[in-house]
Amino acid sequence: MNSLDVFGINPLSVLIFAPALGALLVLAVPNANKQLARWLSLIIALGIGALAFIVFYAYDREVGGYQFIIRGDWFSVLGASWHLGVDGIGAAMVLLTGLLVPLAILISWEVEDRPSIHLALILFFETGLMGVFVAQDLMIFFLFYELSLVPIYFLIDQWGGANRKYASTKFMIYSVGGTLGMLLATQLIGWSISAVPADVVAQVQAQPNVPATVAEYIPGRPSFDIDVISTLFPAFSGAGGVFLGISVVTVKALAFVGFFIAFAIKVPVWPFHTWLPDAHGEAPTAGSMLLAGVMLKLGAYGFIRLVVPFFPDVWVSEINLLGIQTTTAGIFAFLAMLGIVLGAFAAWAQNDIKRLVAYSSVNHMGFVALGIAVMALAYGRAYVEGSTDLMNDGIMAANGAVMQMFNHGLSSAGMFLLAGAIYHKTHTRDMREYGGLWVRAPIYGGVFIFTSMASLGLPGLNGFVSEFLVVRGSWPVFTALTLISMLGLLLTGSYILKGIRAVLHGPFNLKWRGTPLEIELREFIAISPLLVLMLITGIYPNWILTVIHESVIRMMGG
Amino acid sequence: MTEAFNFPVLSIIVFLPIVVGVAILFMDSKQRDLIRGVALSTAIVLLVLSAFVYLNYNANVDELVAQQEAILEDGGDAPAARMFDAGLAYEENYEWVPALGIRYHVGVDGLTVPMVLLTGMVAVAGVLISWRIEDRIKEFMAFFLLLVAGVYGVFVAMDLFLLFFFYELAIFPMYLLIAGWGWVKLREYAAMKLTLYILIGSVVALVGAIALVLTASNFFTANPTLLPEGAQAFSFDIEQLMYAAELGAFSQPGYLGIESLTFGTFWFPFIFLGFAVLAGIFPFHNWSPDGHVAAPTAVSMIHAGVLMKLGALTAIRVGVQLMPDGAQVHLPWIVFLTLVNVVYGAFIAFRQRDFKYVIGFSSVSHMGLVSMGVATMNTIGMTGAGLQMFSHGAMTALFFGCVGMVYDRAHTRDIPSLGGFVKRMPWVAFAFVVGGLTSMGMPGLSGFVAEFPIFTGMWAASENVVLRIGNFELTNYYSVLVIIAALGIVITAAYVLRVTGQVFFGEFNERRYSDVGDITITDRAILLLLGVPLVVLGLYPNIMAPMIEAGVRPIVALLGGM
């Protein structure tokens, strides 16, 4: 195990606490001293970004598995511990977060209203995001998952657009209400671990390569450790198939629903997406960037890390819906398909540029969901039936899903940055007011087209790689749904071209004669790392794919 | 327990405020600053001593757990009572009225140590927030210190008589403080209502307690071999009563000539509910919002912050701990009352227009969670109840501090006419947001750390608890109750967002509130003193949870649970 401690503190703990401490530091800067607050927060975010980068590169892909592990007492009465660690999937997400936060801070330079609080909230947000990606204990996961809502709520509520109160309240109620089921399910699962009989525990512990926490687990105690739950909860069958007075199958299905709704809202999976256009549309630019770029990934990450391994039997359980015989994973794939198609249609119908980009997230995250559905089905089949027929497809789709999370992080953050840049100059988000801007802003136009193409999935840029992997993985499993989803890609092309046409082409709106429209240097600096990564990932995806691939295989038990 | 220092720290904590309070009454009422200074330094000394007790107890908690494990391992007679004895620290045990079996016996266990710390915090905060009271400050401070003494006394009393003595001592100055310094429109009504409710509750409990002591005495007289060496058969000593409870003194069938009835099953509801009145249990919660609103800020703080915990603590100490069989019969239905507290309290809080009533009803809702944790009758849930007592105490004192600071400057508590106060009082807004997030159970703050084990405890209890009414048996209903109770979280989130949005954000009325300024340095000290523990406990629950766990283990062992 490689050691990368910062002043003797585990690097992952530093990734969690440094942003929060930095936020306090920035908060102490008086509001009058705007430049100091900006530079200070930028330096802090860059430092954390550098550490995230180092963690990603120091992650030993030959060894694989969880690395930089730390375990300490945290809440012993419940069996919850301060257990952190990253595998390849987590490391990719940590890298994404570390990358996007400094860019968001750079783009917040334009905020004049209470900048120190604004910047402190962004840093505080980073704490929540990092915490989720490195948590190896369900309670710690939940802690940071919920905690990340608070700063983004205030960012929307205080610095958002005209309709911000509505958007922020809707966002908060959706999120808190949505996680309620997950909270209850978390408590239930943590407790039910203590009801797993000792002989089952011994059986699991006797398997080769069990994680350290599983090997050390003492039967009869509650545990929230993700490894322990992943190995013991699927094996849990209550007393004669009955738990809490009802059958274990029902209990697991209910717990599944709790987790499913919480993460489906976050991803968002159709039809749980309705909070998203409002929140993304009204949030300040930095907020939109981080919401779309990182926060949506919390949901997808939750599916991959928790819902797939906890409920293999639920994913493959047969369901007869309106005469069609399918599985839970099949329904999930169906919803993903609807997200892809309907998200594209909705994006196509927008005139508000930020809402267009917001709906494009529903569209793109649909591919993540589709990939996860294949992964869940493959994992479930392997767990329940021991059949590995779908394994290769599942691994491929899972790789694609994680890649798509990363890529969507790059392109949606880029798109929101560009939308924010034009909004900042014109003070309108209505695309009908734009038109022909390319003449006056050639560099902006070039960057806009490049980013749009990455988002559209043009071969040679990043989006293509991941969407290809997802579609390749899901084709043999959900052929019809994949086919319709690929038709959805056509719609993706339409709305992206519609956006390009409305903003860059057509007659120039003379209203903007005197307005400087060209992208500012600061904005260009902020987007350039994204452009570079889009290109590199498109041409040489292996720089990140090998890291992800190893962890996906390990997760799938291959 | 190993104790770091060897002086009677608990007696000092209890009697110092009484002595200083009486001394203040003899001071010159013109020397206001001197009076304030004396009161503040007393409160600070109390806080420091309480913190010493806390830190020392916490340092030895691992050793205590090992002792308790050893006691459970080796079996023998009355393991729960021995575990309880092992957990007592800073004991002082003297004869007081030997003829009546009354002793001066004080000590703290894992449940009460956090309460002692909380009382110290709220005492300092209460003196600080009363800094600008000009009206009869001498009497105010004297009564306030007496109130603090009474509260401390109940927490440390290990003798049933002493416990009642301090319980009534706490109520008496409470009445005077509300009636004399409270909100003019409501104070006499509220003070009277509060005192009557609590007195009636405690009298019912007192009758039960005397019957309890008599029963124990009869039991020991009938079985003299069981009596500990050198002890009296007739005794109010809680340790001895617990020993008797574990030997089955209160669970012998045939009480009052009815075969299915035991002493415990008959008296438990009276004693438990009698004390739980003070914890605001439905349907006896009615005094509490009025009392909170009518009281001056410092008294609201100590009232909701600490006094309501007296009710919960004594209900556990005398009710559950001494009559475990009664608890097993009655808590399965009392849990429905706590559910009403949690959900209905949150709904009513949502409907309020008066800022202070919102907080008042939120206390009803949150104290319901404490009782719910007790009703789980397992280690996890009861540990959660203990954590919630501390968390709610600090949080609600912080809330009432914030309300008081706004009210002092805006002279209204009507929520719709307030707005945008973040501009003038950023510290208060920040503190209120922290408190609000704590109350809606946001992870990273102490409310989550407390609610999570309570709910987990409910799940855990679901398979074990059975409600029997005649031939009717209800099982596995705790899992349904916990889902309903979770709705309380959503409603809490809704009213917290609503109040925060309206009072601290939104439009600021420049003309009406032109003279509203920022808070003073003493006010900031209050916010820090009460707010920081919420964050610390939320980020690192193990700073308190193991201690409380050690405190509830004997009780759970007595209940035969895990």
Describe this structure in words.
The complex is a heterodimer of chains A (558) and B (562). Chain A has 558 residues and is mostly helical. Chain A is 70% helix and 5% strand. Chain A has helices spanning 11-27, 34-58, 88-107, 115-134, 138-147, 149-159, 164-192, 198-206, 212-216, 226-232, 248-266, 275-282, 285-310, 312-316, 328-348, 353-384, 391-426, 437-440, 442-456, 462-474, 479-504, 521-539, 542-555, and strands at 67-75, 80-86, 242-243, 246-247, 318-321, 324-327. In chain A, the strands form 3 sheets. A two-stranded antiparallel sheet of chain A has the order 1-2. In chain A, strands 3-4 form a two-stranded antiparallel sheet. Chain A has a two-stranded antiparallel ribbon with strand order 5-6. In chain A, helix 2 (34-58) runs antiparallel to helix 3. The longest helix of chain A is centred in the C-terminal third of the chain and has 36 residues, at 391-426. Chain B is mostly helical and 562 residues long. Chain B contains 20 helices and 4 strands. Chain B has helices at 9-25, 32-59, 61-74, 79-87, 112-129, 137-156, 160-181, 187-222, 238-247, 263-276, 287-294, 297-320, 324-351, 355-376, 379-410, 426-439, 446-462, 478-504, 521-539, 545-558, and strands at 89-97, 102-108, 466-469, 472-475. In chain B, helix 2 runs parallel beside helix 6 (137-156) and helix 14 (355-376) packs parallel to helix 17. Chain B is globular, with a radius of gyration of 23 Å. The two termini of chain B are 23 Å apart. The model of chain B has no long low-confidence stretch (mean pLDDT 88). The chains are: A mainly alpha (558), B mainly alpha (562). At the A-B interface, strand 1, helix 5, helix 6 and helix 7 of A face helix 15, helix 17, helix 18 and helix 20 of B.
